[in-house]
Design brief:
elongated, two-stranded antiparallel ribbon, about 280 residues
Length: about 280
């Protein structure tokens, strides 16, 4: 599975930052919005809360998890259906043992595992249970990464408010100097600003992108499980195609996928539906 750079994630973050920076420049300049102690309170506090809430080994993987928001490894459902149809046809013509030769050509790990079970003669219910357990394990790992960014999205504004409270206390402690109240109040509000930006432009959107990636992958895995089950049941390629097209968008369900090679342009970028019955 080839990784593809998702320009939307980077474009969203960069454009958001540029719009905010543009508003700052129009209002008087960037210098008044830079305050190192405020940055340390928000970033340091968010990291500290993350370490308290999650195991260290999961927090260490945050950078690797974040990369998944910028790179896509989604497989085209039309290509996957075409591959399953071809495997079904081969099994019909040459027998189930011929699948052993096809295992070397299959790149999707779940499909390769499922076909391996079939070749080994595992009963259909056992194959479904084994693949379902793999699906649950993968979904659990995905959710752990999403939860980290969701947590950071909650805690960044909270520590921004804490920083603001610290600034207000310092401001009230020096009320005798009326001229310094305004500047100190501005600095106190910066931590809330930093927390809000990081939460709503970085942490929560990345969590949402990871959740969407996981959702699409789960649908693809469900498609594979149904295809492997149909193959073991001995269904015809036409029946397999009709059954698996339910996973495609409505406008793609009229396309004939029998005999279609995978990785073709017509299937590239096709999305699986969000919900599967």
């Amino acid at each position: 599975m080839k990784k593809e750079f998702d320009i939307a994630t980077l474009a969203g973050i960069v454009s958001g930052m540029l719009l905010i920076a543009g508003a700052m420049l129009l209002g008087g300049g960037l210098g008044m919005f830079i305050n190192i102690p405020s940055v340390l309170i928000v970033l340091g506090g968010t990291l500290a809360a993350t370490l308290v809430n999650f195991p260290l080994k999961e927090v260490i993987k945050v950078s690797k998890i974040a990369v998944k928001a910028f790179f896509s490894t989604e497989e085209s459902p039309t290509d996957m259906i075409s591959q399953l149809i071809a495997l079904t046809g081969k099994a019909k013509k040459e027998g189930m043992l011929a699948m052993e030769q096809s295992l070397k050509e299959i790149k999707n790990p779940l499909l390769k595992t499922g076909l391996g079970y079939i070749v080994d003669g595992m009963p259909l219910d056992d194959v479904r249970n084994a693949l379902t357990l793999q699906q649950i394990a993968i979904h659990s790992r995905h959710k752990a990464g999403q939860d980290i960014f969701k947590g950071m999205g909650r805690w960044a504004p909270a520590f921004g408010m804490i920083g603001t409270l610290i600034g207000l206390v310092q401001m009230l402690a020096s009320m005798e100097d009326a001229a310094s109240i305004g500047p100190k109040m501005a600095v106190a509000l910066l931590t809330t600003f930093y927390g809000a930006v990081l939460s709503n432009l970085v942490f929560l959107p990345i969590a949402g992108k990871l959740a969407r990636r996981s959702e699409i992958e789960m649908v693809t895995m469900k498609l594979i499980m149904e295809g492997v089950g149909a193959l073991q049941q001995g269904l015809s390629p036409m029946m397999v195609e009709t059954k698996l097209k339910a996973f495609l968008e409505t406008e793609l369900q009229g396309i004939s996928l029998s005999g279609r090679k995978s990785n073709t342009k017509s299937g590239k970028g096709a999305k699986a539906p969000a919900a599967v019955g």
